[in-house]
Design goal:
Blueprint: H1 2-19, H2 26-87, E1 94-97, E2 103-106, H3 109-112, H4 125-137, E3 143-149, H5 155-175, E4 183-189
Parallel strand pairs: 3-4
Antiparallel strand pairs: 1-2
Helix pairs in contact: 1-2, 2-4
């Protein structure tokens, strides 16, 4: 009987938290996800080790731990976003937080590369240096760099150029102490 009540209560909590996600901030959504995952994990572990009462207790403890972890992670990402916004202020670089709680930097083409070239422009280097400082300070962070081109060249030119631009940024970050193993690259062309 206790197991059914715990399972029903857990399902009700998850249903209520999922229904409110549309109106929640990113921090609230991440906290709710952490609570849900923690509750499920806690219920499974508690049920496996102590039966029905253990499942209920495990769900409560897991929800609290998961909510705390989700909140801390979301706050960390928000702090990193603010730091990147300050570091790139006035440069034209846009910093956004994606739905999956990652940071995305949108860098204008006029400050990053010359047309048809993959060499990092001199005025782009200070931005990359500030970005690298943040990465060095957060050794668990990984980076995905996607190089882009415009549509003035052929696919045969633009495809390798977009990848080469991403590689140039990766290599420059490497000169600033960011290990290449933390960076993946890709290319896109218009």
């Amino acid at each position: 009987m206790h197991t059914r009540i715990a399972s029903f209560s857990l399902a009700a909590v998850l249903a209520l938290s999922a229904s409110g996600c549309a109106n929640m901030s990113e921090t609230q959504q991440t906290t709710a996800k952490g609570a849900g995952i923690g509750a499920i994990a806690g219920a499974v572990i508690g049920g496996a080790t102590s039966g029905g009462r253990g499942a209920a207790t495990g769900a409560v403890i897991g929800a609290a731990a998961g909510a705390a972890g989700g909140y801390i992670w979301s706050q960390r990402m928000e702090n990193q976003k603010k730091a990147m916004e300050q570091a790139t202020q006035g440069t034209g670089v846009g910093v956004t937080q994606t739905a999956d709680n990652q940071l995305k930097l949108d860098i204008p083409s006029d400050i990053s590369f010359d047309v048809g070239r993959a060499d990092v422009k001199a005025n782009f280097r200070p931005i990359l240096e500030r970005f690298a400082q943040g990465l060095v300070a957060n050794p668990s962070a990984t980076v995905r760099i996607v190089g882009h081109t415009d549509n003035t060249g052929s696919d045969a030119i633009n495809n390798p150029l977009s990848v080469n631009r991403a590689a140039s940024v990766r290599d420059y970050l490497g000169t600033q102490g960011v290990a290449a193993t933390r960076v993946t690259i890709d290319g896109r062309f218009t």
